[in-house]
Amino acid sequence: MSSTAIAQHLIDGEFTGEPVKERRNPARPDEVAVVSASGTRADAEAAIAAAEAAQPAWAAVPAPARGAILMRAAELLRSRAAEVAADLVREEGKTIAEASGEVGRAVGVLQFFGSLGWAATGTTYESALPGTTISTRRRPLGVVGLITPWNFPIAIPAWKTAPALLSGNAVVLKPSELTPMSARHLAAALHEAGLPAGVLNVVQGSGRTVGETLAQDDRIAALSFTGSTAVGRQIGRVVNERGGRSQLEMGGKNGVLVLDDADPRRAAQVVASGGFGLTGQACTATSRVYVTPGIRAAFLEELAAIAATYAPGDGLDPATAMGVVASDAQLERDISAVRNAVDSGATLLHGRPESDGLHFQPVIAVDVEHASPLAAEEIFGPIVAVMEVPDYEAGLAAINDSAYGLTAGICTTSLSRASDFAENAHAGVIKVNRATAGLDLHVPFGGVKDSSSGTFREQGHTATQFYTWEKTVYLGAE
Ligand code: NAD
């Protein structure tokens, strides 16, 4: 039995804003999953002002004490993980296992950056000048804006918020309007952990109103965005035009190359996990597969058998293998892309261009034209386009012939092919015999080409570079 969740803003230490906007549970359209506040420009500006006022005192707090607050927030989030995961399923539609994993990820991210409060920072250099040492230190930027998508509604806000706060910045976060409650849970944990008022502000609402205000306001020194390429490029132009710093992590069209020497079952598991896990609604999801002739038949047989086990259902039922599509607009994109591929000659080995509500069966479309939307554009559904290539070289060329460059994978037992692929596949993350989706939290993450601004990496130690600037100090003895 669920009760309707309420997601307000957090502005200057107060949860405020009338809850007016309903979000229905995509698996149960009759159920209102959450009612959220809907911010105005004035709300966004109040949040920025609160952040600006709070930031200097926060930056003066010793880094270990800032980190300790992140650690306490991690414990609070862990203690309510079951409730947070269930709310996440209700607003986003993924399975409870996936949601629990994501909440665990957010806990881990808070712990990781919390521990960095004790880490060594800066470098000491010898100087060419006598009696002089040179050292570098990293300073916070001030107020940073964070704009996040719906598909990882607590992990992405956490992996931006934690390094921003640890580095001594104040934050204004605008989560996706489809998933306000997950961000609300993150904010509550940090607030209750003792974060001073104004250091973290969350403004719920639309991209056009709240998001654009963050992009345009000169008081936002840096803006980190994750979302679609079209919106990201637009935001990047606005921030760069006014001299701000931007970080854009955007769409993907992630390919996997399956070579004759791979084990067909193992390769099918890698592709299915990357393509159908998270309902294919991951920036790192596998959406195109290039297969060499000798393994094609066995691989497709295995893949079809596995696809049949990914029946869509209500994510709150622990037996559900795959969650539902998150919205009607997303479903429309999925269906029209599949229909278009069929019209231009592709064969469907599994799934159809139709759906029962938002319960959409996984699709395997074979012999899709390389340039067709299903093979070339980000669709963001549980849909895998399969194309045959004559050999490794043609497969690598096809992987690289894409506007995107987020993740790329290869299934092979050849060390030399794997090494060559790791070197020459043009993507920010390379996976050898592992699903394209799924990331460790302590290593750099980001794309190239249309997947990223390519400016700064997220996650791991590298994440703090975006949220700081570097100062070089020459210290003479006298
Ligand atoms: P989206 O671009 O529609 O929205 C992302 C965020 O931007 C939302 O909070 C939205 O409200 C806001 N926004 C929309 N228009 C805006 C505007 N004009 N000004 C300011 N903000 C605006 O993306 P989405 O549908 O929420 O998420 C799916 C997309 O996110 C996919 O393209 C996916 O690949 C991408 N994604 C990328 C990564 C990554 O790390 N590369 C991770 C997850 C998702």
UniProtKB/TrEMBL annotation:
Q: Which Pfam families match?
A: Aldedh
Record-annotated membrane-spanning stretches = none
Aldehyde dehydrogenase domain segment(s): 22-473
Coiled-coil zones: none
Keyword Membrane (UniProt): no
Please indicate which superkingdom the organism of origin belongs to.
Bacteria
- Keywords in alphabetical order, please: Oxidoreductase
GO MF: oxidoreductase activity, acting on the aldehyde or oxo group of donors, NAD or NADP as acceptor
Concerning InterPro entries, the annotation shows: Ald_DH/histidinol_DH, Ald_DH_C, Ald_DH_CS_CYS, Ald_DH_N, Aldehyde_DH_dom
Entry's family note: Belongs to the aldehyde dehydrogenase family.
What is the protein's name according to its record? Answer: Aldehyde dehydrogenase family protein
Lineage, opening ranks: Bacteria, Bacillati, Actinomycetota, Actinomycetes, Micrococcales
